C-alpha cells in the first residue's frame, strides 16, 4: 500500500528529509525513488485483487454445492418421516390389541378370584352354621375372623343380589349366635349347661370377634342375672329397712365367692366382670335404699349412721380391691379395646343416696355441739398459776371440732361435711357471744374482771391463731366445689371483737378508778397555785393505782398483747389528762409548770411500771410510744404558757403533728383568755373547725 495518501504528505516527508533549502538539489533523485516504490505497490495491489476474485469464485461454487446437498438431505428427511408415520400407525394398532387382551386377562383373573372368595364365603357360612350348632366356639371364632376379611373384599359389590343374600344370611347367623352365647353363659350360671371351661373360654374369644358392644351386652346380662335374686330378696317387706344394710353387703360377698368358684378362668381378667357385678349391685342397692329413706317417716339417727358407715366401709373395701385387682390395665392406653382402663364410680355409688336424708344427723351434731360449748364455758376456771393464762374451754372447743370433722369425714366429703363446717362457724359465734356476755357480767367483781379479761385476750389470740389451721382442715375434708366455699374470716373478726371488748372493759375499769383522782385535780385552783414541788397528789394516786393494775396484766398477758393493751392505756391516760386540763378555766404560770411536772412524772412512771423482765424491741417500742403520745400534753401546756406572738408562731407546727389541732385551738385560746379575733393569723384553722 502507498504510505503517502496525498501530495501534502509527500511534500511533508520531503521537507523532513531536507529541512534546508540547500538540500533541494537532490530532490529529483528522491522522487524517482518514490515513483519506483509506488509502481511496486501498484503491482502488489493488482495481485491481491486477482487473488480475491479467485477466492470469491471458489466460495460461490461451494455455496452451490451446499445448496444441492441440503436439498438432498431434506428429501431424505421427508422420506424417513413418511416411513415413521406408517410405523407409528402400525405400533398403535398392535398396542391397542395388546391392551384389550390385558384387560380381558385382568377381568378374567379378578372374576376367578372373586368366584373363589365367594365360594369361600359360602363355605364359611355353611361351616359357621355347623360349628355354631355344635358349639365349637374356637372354630367359630376363626371363621368369624376369616368371614370378616372376605366381607371387606365384597364391600364395593354389596348391591349385587347374590352378595346381599349371603350378607343377610351371615347377619341372621350372627344374631342367632349372639342369642346362643348369652343363653350359654346364663345357663352356665344356673348350672344347667354342661359346657366345659375350655369351651366357655373359646366362647369368650368368639364374643370378642363380635365386638365390644356385644361384649358389654353379654356381661351386663350375666350381671343382671346374678343380682336378680338379691333384688327380689331385699325388695320383700321384711327386708326393706336400714337394719338390713349389713346383710346386703354380706350377701354380695358370698355371691362373689360362689361366682369365683364357678367361673374361675372363664372370663378374661381384663374384662373386669367382677367390677361390673359390683357396679350392678351398687346401682340396685342405691335405688332400694333411696326408696327406704323416702318412705320412712322418722329416721333413727343411730340406725341411719350405722347403715351409712357400713356402706362407706363396703365401698372403700370394693374400691381398694378393684384397684389392686386391675392395676395392670388401669390408667393405661391399652391396645386391647376389651381391657378395662378405668374403674366405674364405686365410692359414693350407694352412700351418696344418704346425703339428702342426713338432716337428723346434722341436728344431732348441732345439739351435742351447743351442749358441749355451754358445758365447757361453765367449767372454765382461771388458773393464774398455770402455764397457759387462757380459758381451757377454747382448747376443748377446738378439740371437739377436730372430732366432729373426723366423724363427719367417715360419712361425706360433700354437703353433709359442708353443713358440719357451718355448725362449727355457728359454734364459734356462739362461743364468742357467750364470752362477751360473761365479760359484762364480771364488771361488778373488779379483781375477777381484770383477770378474766386478760384470760379472754389470751384466749382470743389463741383462737385467731388456730382458726387458719381449722379452715385448712375443713378444706381438706371437702371436695370441690364445697371446699372453695370455706371461709372463716368473719369468725376471726368475732375474736377481734371479743379482744376489743376485753380491752374496753379494762379501760372502763381503769377510768372508774382514775376518774376520782382527776376530779380532785379539777378542784384545785390552778390560777392561784403557788406551791410547786413534787408531783401532784392526783398523779401520785394515779401512778399508785396503775402499779397494781399493770402488775396484774403483766403477769397474765402475752408480751405482744400486753404492749397492745398498754398502748391503748397510754392513749387513754393522755386523753384523760388533756380533757381534764381543758376543763380548767384558768392556769397560772406556776400551775402550768406543775402540770408539766405531772406529765413528766406520769411518763417516767409508765415506762418504769411497764418494764418487762427482759429488754426487748417491744419494750423500746412502747417507751417511744409513751414519749410520743404524752408529748401532746406537753405541747398543749407549752402553747398555753407562750405569749400571743409565740403561740401564733408555734401553733402551725402543733397542727402538723396532731389531727386534733383544729378542735384543740378554741380550748387553748380559752385557757389563754383569748378570742379568735385576737389571732387572725390562725384563721385557716377556724375554717377547718367550722
End-to-end C-alpha gap: 132 Å
H/E element order = HHHHHHHHHHHHHHHHHHHHH
Major sheet characteristics: none
Judged by helices, strands and strand pairing, the structural class is mainly alpha
Count of discrete alpha- or pi-helical segments spanning 4 or more residues? 21
> How much strand content do the residues show?
under 5%
Shape assignment:
flat
Radius of gyration in whole Å, from Cα? 60 Å
Unreliable spans: 1-5, 20-25
Indicate the percent of residues in helices.
over 70%
Total beta-strand segments = 0
Mean pLDDT across all amino acids: 85
Characteristic terms for this protein:
690 residues; mainly alpha; flat; Vps53_N; Vps53; coiled coil; Vps53 N-terminal domain-containing protein
How would you explain this protein's 3D organization?
With 690 residues, the protein is mainly alpha-helical. It has helices spanning 7-17, 27-134, 137-153, 161-190, 197-209, 212-233, 245-262, 273-295, 301-325, 359-378, 392-409, 415-441, 446-476, 489-523, 537-556, 559-583, 589-609, 617-641, 644-657, 661-671, 683-689. It is flat and about 160 Å long. The model is unreliable at 1-5 and 20-25 (pLDDT under 50). This is Vps53 N-terminal domain-containing protein. Residues 24-51 form a coiled coil.
